[in-house]
Specification:
heterodimer, A: alpha+beta, seven-stranded antiparallel β-sheet, two-stranded antiparallel ribbon, 7 helices, 30% strand, globular, B: two-stranded antiparallel sheet, elongated
Chain lengths: 294, 84
């Protein structure tokens, strides 16, 4: 994800062509592709059709593959898009009824959406690839990118926040799924028994905390302090600004390339804006974590 | 085992090499919070975010049917628009 954003999707020609000629969608093969509903059924029509599970696809409304490439280079992506445009013909496809949604992927009604961003503040070695190459752009992206994620907050948890409380269920969700190093892609979360210490208190709208998360073998961990502010106005949570800063060590299964040893990792939380086009994005942590909202 | 010192760290820019000391973590100050929270907001000028991405493939399909455009689908291991 990080590498595509810094390469193909950072090219003005690619972006202009996509904006002008295509309807653009982003999905996870292990997210939307595993949904047990019409969204999942349609996603599965194209996943894997290019020869791999990932990549850049062009399809018609029947789900037929018109173009495919798995390449970060803008010129390759442009070539595929232009070829797909030549081959594309609009087809008649009946509407797909989408009433019964896989509940795991449905945003809690009357809840909150919070955006998290994460940044490694130091410890990476200098980029080794030659400047001006695609390898440089990719390596630089992995070493400087900002991790992003959404947090879903249930209605009852939102009600608790409105009363000045910080429910245990929300604390645990934040600890297990959102205090992670996702700056290089899909992170590995924490299990209950990897929460070694968790002190989080919300008093008078000020959130203070100190956490220690660590795997049993000690190879991955995060020791950090939290400070934040929660504000309520006219029966609504109007602010959920939190910063977490501490030392992280180790890396997840799908996030190699972490700095050696302990390194500073900061994570910020902010209320999502409904006007944001990505507001409805399902938290990545929902995938494979049936207990995410518990 | 080295530990970094928050105050020293915050003097440095986000991309600078970390500044370490032997001091234990002392908690976040209000100044730390304000500086970091601001610096951790995504930049306004990210080209990839100017694309009107759809997060639902069925909603994208509906738009494509109306506009008679092809559907471009970025498929990744993990949510491409929001993970990492």
């Amino acid at each position: 994800m990080v590498a595509f954003r810094a390469t193909a999707f950072n090219d003005a020609k690619v972006v202009d062509l996509l904006k002008k000629e295509f309807v653009c969608v982003g999905i996870a093969h292990n997210g939307a592709g595993r949904r047990k509903d019409a969204e999942g059924d349609f996603a599965r029509k194209l996943i894997g059709k290019g020869g791999t599970l990932q990549g850049l696809h062009v399809i018609n409304t029947k789900g037929d593959l018109v173009g495919y490439v798995y390449d970060f280079r803008p010129q390759s992506v442009l070539a595929m898009l232009n070829k797909a445009l030549k081959n594309f013909e609009a087809v008649d496809a009946p509407p797909i009824e989408f009433k019964e949604k896989d509940k795991r992927f449905v945003m809690p009604e009357d809840g909150l959406v919070i955006v998290t961003t994460a940044k490694v503040l130091g410890g990476h070695e200098p980029v080794k690839a030659a400047k001006g190459t695609i390898q440089y752009d990719m390596e630089n992206a992995w070493k400087t990118s900002m991790g992003r994620e959404h947090v879903w907050v249930r209605k009852d948890e939102t009600q608790a926040l409105l009363k000045g409380g910080l429910p245990d269920s929300l604390q645990k969700r934040i600890l297990r799924y959102h205090l992670v190093d996702n700056t290089r892609g899909t992170p590995t979360g924490w299990s209950d028994n990897e929460i070694k210490k968790a002190e989080m208190t919300l008093q008078g709208g000020r959130l203070n905390g100190r956490v220690h998360l660590e795997t049993k073998d000690g190879k991955r961990g995060y020791q950090a302090d939290l400070l934040g502010f929660v504000e309520v106005k006219e029966g609504k949570v109007t602010r959920f600004d939190v910063v977490v800063l501490g030392e992280f060590w180790g890396q997840g299964t799908y996030t190699p390339g972490a700095p050696k040893g302990r390194f500073p990792l900061a994570i910020a939380f902010t209320l999502a804006q409904p006007s944001d086009a990505l507001y409805n994005l399902v938290p990545d942590a929902v995938r494979g974590n049936a207990d995410y909202l518990k | 085992m080295t530990r970094f010192h928050f105050a020293a760290l915050l003097v440095a820019s986000l991309n600078a090499a970390p500044l370490f000391s032997q001091e234990p973590a002392k908690g976040l100050t209000l100044a730390d919070f304000e500086k970091l929270h601001k610096e951790l907001q995504p930049p306004d000028n990210e080209l990839w975010r100017t694309i009107p991405w759809q997060v639902s493939i069925l909603e994208g399909r509906e738009l494509a049917a109306k506009s008679k455009k092809p559907i471009f689908v970025w498929v990744a291991s993990g949510e491409p628009l929001g993970c990492g």
